[in-house]
Every structure is written in structure tokens, then in C-alpha cells.
Design brief:
heterodimer, A: alpha/beta, Rossmann fold, 2 domains, four-stranded parallel β-sheet, globular, B: about 425 residues, alpha+beta, 16-stranded antiparallel barrel, 6 helices, 17 strands
Chain lengths: ~300, ~425
Amino acid sequence: MRIALWTCLAFLLAPLASRAEVRVAATLPSLGALAREVVGAHGTVEVLAPPNQDPHFVDGKPTLVLRLNRADLLVHAGGGLEAGWLPTLLAGARNGGIQPGQPGNLEVVGLAGPLLEVPDELDRSLGDVHPGGNPHVWLDPRRARRIVGGIAERLAELDPDNAEAYRANARRFDARLERAIAGWEEKMRPHRGRGLVAYHKSLTYLIDWLGLEAFGTIEPLPGIAPSPSHLAQLIVRMREAEPKPIVVAERWHNQRTARTVAEKAGAPLVVLPGDVGSTKENGDYLSFIGDLVDRLEKALAPAR
Amino acid sequence: MIRWVRATAVVAVATLLFPDVSRARAPEDLEAELERELGTARTTPVAAQLLPEISLVGTMAGAVFSDAPSPRLPAHEPWHDGFSLQEIELGFRSSVDPYVRADVYLALSLAGIEVEEAYATTLALPANLQLRAGQFYAPFGRFNQLHFLEVTPFVDMPLVNRRFFGGEQLRGMGVELSFLFPLPFFLELRTAAQTADNRLSFGVPAEDVHGAEDLLGVARLVASFDLGERLNLLGGVSYANGPNAEGPLEARPRTQILGADLQLHLRDAASRAYTALQAEWIARRAALPGGGVREGGAYLWLVRRFDAQWEAAVRADWMGLPQGRTFGRPALDVHEAHLRYAVRRDFHAAHDDGHVAGAPSFKPFGQRRFGAAISFYPSEFQRIRLQANYDFLPDERRGIQEYFLQYQFVIGSHGAHVF
């Protein structure tokens, strides 16, 4: 009788125990979107950076400390990208599990394959360079596949009960992503080798993936405001180039400078919307990358 | 055959003439090839990773005063005509182990070296608690906890902070325990016990501490809310209670300080630009031999960051909220004849012989100041700032114009921005 009672109680309490959801905090909306695909119904994902702000310059508001305080896993780009705001928040979070080096701290640049633009020489005369290489890896969906796998493995380690579910979610998403990548690559194939002038070196991985050519950047060096002489040289080079490169700026960059360069060089300007969730249409990672590809394709197509 | 010999000879001569080139190319190519095939990334050398984050911030200023300046401490603020080195701040930050991180800031000046802050902070205490131990700025108000030269929009300090806490701000050796409330909004309580050797409001040097009553106790409750994605409101109340240096050692009178602060921060959409309003009110009540003194002050500043390069700010300072009032007959007039430099004299005297006869730093005197500053950041690592103040001393019926030109550079690692 007593055994039966305990068994009943165990069955009644079991759902409560398994409802202990995993809580993920992601620094950037893209990383949050990837984590969401893996977590599925087994937990929640909170994002620290707003989708329409430069990820280098996020306000380290005390309210963000709360999201880190209750997280089981922190997914961040790393490589120095969030150095201007994350360390203070992390120190105030009072959460030992997500500190650097702990299983609950996942640095994405370590998952995404070899980084591009690893500086041979480290000096600030070269601008605000990242010593380990360019950390803007999430804009290459091939690398996102690796990131998703990495998140799944780390969640499996932290929450072994749902390990298989995380891996299954990751596999399902990976298959969708693989198909989508094939479609995007097909769409952009005619434009391979076309020049792209980015505002900041934040599009390096997108350029690398789509086989475009990094024609130049509006910033003379990372984090250094453009001087008239640098812009003049860039515009002259762009005028002479055939086919004409396109100018691509993210929303948080100086739109007037980007527009002026595009107009004076006679090149189309593409304004990228920000990160996942910055518009109604790009609420998840697939629609976000799809949106970026569409915008680039539209700008490249008429000049062909 | 002859062609083959000639080719070999050419290669041999080239190798002899350009040995570095031929030797250097091969491993580099191979490295790139390995990187592509094996997916190994070049990493920072291990030794470099183990070094703490090191930064050095140099701040210097030129100043012009239209008249003898109102009392400023010879520390970190320009206080005389001409050039001055405000500070070279050397910062070291690192995890100690998985449980603790350490932050050390040394201030180098032409007068010597000073430990600005040096503390260890726990990272993984249970129950949302956090301990901090070492030398640190007291968790009192908003301005007091900042390394103001690096993060505030002005060359100098707010008047009330300078008058009550001095150029070195309110700080000491001690322990802090803080607690983050598990609520849907940010609410944090910080409490600290520190040495009370701040010479302006308190005054027991570390070597004279005989019991808990000789320490400075500080508490701060701070809350923060997001009002939408771009607007953040932060408010806090603070209280400090500690012994001051007046009177005989046995009957050490105490100083109590109460503060309230508010910050509104509005970030522009998709931009570096923001607008921030910060206000702080501080009132002090000091018991002194023969009576006591009460006085308060406040400042309000508004800063507009236009983009990555330009920033403008205005600040208003008031002393006399509430108006300075004495109780009983405290001895305040020892340095009456030199009131203008009283605070400085007190500072030096306190350093020289431990105690000062009379308490000129408690003597209330009215003052108002209005300042405006404009800053230009050529990059993230340099700043040029121009500031003008109008300083009004109603008791002396005179106003002083103050002009500052400040230059700051940052080398080494890029520390986190303070919100």
C-alpha cells in the first residue's frame, strides 16, 4: 500500500521535476536564434543585445545582469567582440556556472572553424583589431551549422536528460539550413566575384561564403572614422571598377557617409536591417540570412 | 642538361642572395595550407593569454582661471593655471581562478604612485551574494564609484562630491557584501565596512582603528528598470556613517551622509548616440566638539553623445541644499583667514600630523557652478575635451571663469564601458 502511494506521488511529481527548463542567455540576436532552434520546447532563450544596435557598443544596463543571473548557459561570440560591455555584466551576475572556462560559458568563435583576418601583427595603429581574428562569424550559415552542433553538445552536457532532444533539434535544423544554403548559393552564383564595399569589417564571413570580393571598407581601419582622403581614393577606385561594386552598410553605421560614397561612385547602396528580429519578417535565423541574401541579390542583379 | 644546370644555378644564386624570403615563404604557405585542411586556427601564445588585461590611460589638462580658483584638491583635478598631469591610470584585470576575479588600478602622478583601487570579487557565491575585499571606492551614490576621468563627460568633479569626499573620492580598505534580489527588475543592496581615513568627512587612519566603531559603514540600494528597449531608469539611495577626526580619540564624533541619485539613459535607435541625465543629491551631518554642522549639495548633468566622435555635456552644481547650518558652537574658524585654500591646507595638514585643530573642511560655504564641455573622440582610444566653468562664490561675491583643455589616450586592452 505504502509503495503504491509513493509510486503515485513519484508519478505526480515527475512532470514538475522534468519541467526544470534550461535557460540560455545569448549576447547577440543571431546567436539567440540559433540557440532557440536547439533548445526547442525544453527551455527559454533570452538575448542581451537589441537587434538594431552595433554588437560592439551595447549598453551594459544593470537590467541585463538579471538575464545572466538566471542563465544555465551563456552563448557569446567571444574573440573580444563583446569586450566593451559583457565582462562587467558577467562579474555582477553572481552566477558561477557561466563564468569564462565553465561549461555554462560557450564562446562561439571557438566552434565556427578557422577565423578569418587573424592579424599577423598586433598594434592599435592598425585600428581596433581583434587579436584572435574577425569574430563576426554568425553571418556565414555554413559556420552557423557548426555553431548549432556546438550548442547542442554543450546543452547535452549541461542537461543530460534532454541530450537526445537537443541533438535531434540540431540535426533537424541543420538539414533545413543545409537546404537553404544550397538555395542561397544557387541564387548568388551569378554574382560570384562581384565587389562589395562594407562599412566595417563585419561582413567578412558573408563575403567569404558568397564568393564576393572585399573591394574595400568605408572605415580606413577597423573602428577608425573615415577621412575624406580615404573616401576619395575609395570612390575613385570604385568609379574605375567594372562591374561596379556595391556599398553595404549596417543600420547603425553612418548612413550619410555610406550614401555619399554610393552616390559619388554611382554604386547601389544596400542597408542591412540589423540582426535577427530587427524587422517583422526576419524573426528567425533562416529568414534573417534569407533577407540579407535577397537584399544583396537585388542590388547586384540590375547592374549585371 | 645544360639548361637544367643553368636553372639549378639560378635557384642556388637566388637562394644565396635572398635566403630569408625563400625560407620564410615555405612554412607560411604550409601553415595556411594546414589551416585550410585541418581547420586549426592560429592562436595567441599561451603566455600572452595568462597575462591579465592591462590598460594604461593617460590624462592631462591645461587650465586657465580668471581669478584665484575656489578650493580644489591637488589630486586629479586641474587646480592651477597651466598644464597638469591629471593621472596616468594603470589597470590590471583578470580572473584569479574560477571563483574570484581581481581588479587593480594604480594612479601614477608627478607626485608619486597611489593605489586607486585593488580588490578581489567573488563570482560564484550562492544565494545571489557577492563579496568584494580590498581597497575600493565606497558604494555610495553614483559618481563616487566611477573612475571619473575615464567615464564622465567632464574634466573635473561635481562640487558636492569634491567638497565632501575630496579628489580621491570616498574610498578605503575594507569588505563589501552585496545582494541581488531575485525580482523581475534589478534591485541590488550593497553594504560595506571600510577604513574611514577620508580626510574631509571622516578621519580615522587605518592604523588607529581599535574597533568596529572606528570604521566607515556604507549601504546603497539601487534599482534599475527598462522603460522600453531604449530608455533605462536607474535610481539609488545611499547612506554612510563613520567617525570623523575632530576631538579627542575617546569621544570621536561621527559624520553621517545621505545621498540619492537618479539616471535616465535614452539610446537612439540603431546608433551610437544617446542622451543621459544624471542627478545626485548628498547631505552631510557632522557632530563636532562643541556642536555640529549640516550641509548639502547636488549636481545635475545632461550629456548628449551625437555619434562615435562627438559629445556635449552641461552640468549645474549647487552647494546649500540644505543651507549650511551649525548647531552649538563647533570650532570651524581656525583657518578663517585662508578659507579659500582651507580644504587644501586641511588635506596637507592631515597628512603631515594626523590631526587638525579645528575642522575647516566642515565649514559650510555657499557655492554654485555651471559648466559645459564638448568632447571629440578621434578614435575609441583618444579624447580631446574643452570645458568652461563659471564658479560663483556668493559669500565672497565673486565669480571665477575656468577653462580647461584636456587630452586623454588609452593603450593596452580596451576596458568595459561603464553604463
